[in-house]
Amino acid sequence: MNQGYEHELPHNSDEDGAEATRRDAGDAESSRASRGWWDRNADEYQSDHGSFLGDDRFVWGPEGLDEEQAELLGPASSLEGLDVLEIGAGAAQCSRWLAARGARPVALDLSHRQLQHALRIGGEVPLVEADACALPFLDGSFDLACSAYGAVPFVADPVKVFREVRRVLRPGGRWVFSVTHPIRWAFPDEPGPEGLSVAASYFDRTPYVEQDEQGRAVYVEHHRTLGDRVRDVVAGGFRLVDLVEPEWPEWNSQEWGGWSPLRGNLIPGTAIFVCERAEERRSAVAQ
Description:
The protein is an alpha/beta fold. Helix content is 26%, strand content 21%. The protein is built from seven helices and ten strands. Helix 1 (27-53) packs parallel to helix 4 (112-121).
């Protein structure tokens, strides 16, 4: 789980003197910032959240919704023998869970340091360092693809990712990904009462950027409304099967960034899109 629920708006960062702002950020700048940010912060991320994520759990978000119970990829018994691509895999926790159920996962991440943590934890899961906008796989290589907060919120054009995922999926393949719930962009990134008042327009799609003194982006996150996400899914060649908004469970007392029991009981924090590869319709008109 590479991209880790750390940032909502507004978020004031003091990392390396970075300044938080809202401005445009294209494909190359976003990719470069994400790779650098996760390479620098992977150690702290795994130290802080590794116990919650586990070494071989499949957790969809800070609420703690587990694929073991959710079965958004399908019943666990149906995963055996399937080729699965995890995008934004981080330390490959989700891929290990898949492997334990007989699937053949491949864990892909943009961050070299995150994949080093995958090596540290161990296991037989193949690891691939690559950008989600240019997947280094042949057409039709996988039966399923998944991403728990990986890649999608951090690219300037998510349709590029979706089209790449569709390309590497076999007919009927399922693509399931989780992101920060779009409504969270209207609220401050605070777990307490101060995070319950609207502070920005939900409809402002301007990217959130943390930049250094030279104005170079060191972290970029892109906002889409819920409608934007659905349209992106369709434009990427998928059919939306389900949209899951996990409720905050009673057992979860943790605070993680702006996520907390207080906020989780009032507003959604995660949106999970369950999609299936749409097949092109052929004209029935006789030639």
